[in-house]
Design a protein that fits this description.
The chain has helices spanning 3-10, 60-66, 74-86, 105-120, 127-131, 134-145, 185-200, 220-229, 237-253; strands at residues 16-21, 24-28, 41-44, 53-56, 90-92, 95-100, 152-155, 166-171, 176-182, 205-211, 232-234. With 258 residues, it is an alpha+beta fold. The strands form two sheets. A six-stranded antiparallel beta sheet has the order 1-2-3-4-6-5, covered by helices on one side. Strand 5 (90-92) and strand 6 (95-100) form a beta hairpin. The longest helix is centred in the last third of the chain and has 17 residues, at 237-253. The protein starts with a helix and ends in a 5-residue tail after the last helix.
Length: 258
C-alpha cells in the first residue's frame, strides 16, 4: 500500500500531501506548534537505496528557532544533540530527519513531530537546564584540551580533611594549580572556604576559578568573597576556553607574558 494511503487511514483522512518536487511531499496534518503554526514535515519517497522513507523538516525547524534563540554555546549544542538523539532523529547541515519503513511510518511521523516541537521550544527552557551541562562541558574541555598538563580530578591535598576537595589539580613544575568550576553561590562559598583552609595550612598552590556566569550566578557579597581569595578567575566558561592554553603555558613557564 502507498504510504500516503497508510497515513490517510491512520489520521482518519485528516491529512493531505503537497508534491514539492518529484517524490517529495509536504505533509499537511493536524500537528501544530504552540503558536498555532503547522509543523513543517516532508516525506522523501524513497530516500535511501534500500527503499527506506526519509521524514525531514528541510531545515525549517532550526531556521524558525533562530528567530528567538541561537544554539551558540557548547552547552546549548549538547542539549540540542541530546534531544534529537534520544528521539532517534539526526541532523545534517541544519536539517532534521528520521528514516523509517512503510510499516512504521505512522509512529515515526508522530515521533518526528514531537522532536521538532521539543527543539522548537528550546527557547522556553529554564536557564538551569542549559546550566546543568556547565560542569560536564568544563570537564570535557580540561580532559581534552589541557591533557598535556596532566590534570587530576577530585584531589584532596589534606589527608585528614576529605571534605576539602579540589575539582582539578594541575601538577605544574612551578607550583600546583587548583582549579574549580563555579556556577552558583553555594559552590562559590564552598570554594572560598576550601581555599582559605589550604592557605591556613600553608599548602603551596595557585587557585583558578572558572565561572559559568560571574555576573549573574551569585550575590555581590559572594562575588567579593571569592574575589578576595582567588588567584585567578575566568568570568565565563567561554572566556576560560579561549584563554586556558595560553594561561597554562604562561604558568608552567614560571613567568608572566607582557
Amino acid at each position: 500500500m502507498d504510504i500516503r494511503e497508510i497515513l490517510r487511514a491512520e489520521f482518519n483522512q485528516h491529512i493531505t500531501f503537497r508534491e514539492r518536487r518529484l517524490n517529495e511531499f509536504q505533509v499537511v496534518a493536524p500537528l501544530y506548534h504552540e503558536d498555532g503554526d503547522m509543523v513543517d514535515i516532508f516525506l522523501d519517497l524513497p530516500a535511501t537505496p534500500d527503499g527506506r522513507i526519509r521524514i525531514s523538516d528541510h531545515g525549517m525547524t532550526l531556521m524558525r528557532l533562530s528567530y528567538s534563540y541561537e544554539i551558540d554555546t557548547p552547552a546549548k549544542r549538547k542539549v540540542f544533540d541530546r534531544i534529537i538523539s534520544e528521539n532517534g532523529v539526526r541532523e545534517s547541515q541544519g536539517r532534521l530527519y528520521l528514516e523509517t519503513t512503510a510499516e512504521h511510518i505512522y509512529p515515526a511521523l508522530l515521533q518526528f513531530a514531537q522532536t521538532v516541537a521539543k527543539v522548537s521550544n528550546m527557547h522556553m527552557f529554564k536557564r538551569e537546564v542549559v546550566q546543568s551541562l556547565f560542569y560536564e562541558s568544563l570537564n570535557d574541555f580540561i580532559s581534552s584540551s589541557l591533557a598535556s598538563y596532566k590534570p587530576g580530578p577530585n584531589y584532596q591535598p589534606l589527608p585528614d580533611r576529605d571534605d576539602l576537595e579540589v575539582d582539578w589539580r594541575f601538577p605544574l613544575s612551578t607550583r600546583d594549580i587548583y582549579l574549580y568550576g563555579v556556577k552558583d553561590g553555594s559552590k562559590a562559598r564552598l570554594v572560598g572556604l576550601t581555599c582559605l583552609e589550604f592557605q591556613r595550612k600553608n599548602v603551596p598552590f595557585r587557585s583558578v576559578i572558572v565561572h559559568e556566569d560571574f555576573e549573574n550566578e551569585m550575590s555581590k557579597k559572594d562575588q567579593r568573597r571569592i574575589t578576595n581569595v582567588a588567584d585567578k578567575q575566568f568570568a565565563t566558561l567561554q572566556d576560560f576556553m579561549a584563554d586556558a592554553e595560553r594561561y597554562f603555558a604562561r604558568e608552567s613557564s614560571g613567568r608572566y607574558l607582557q
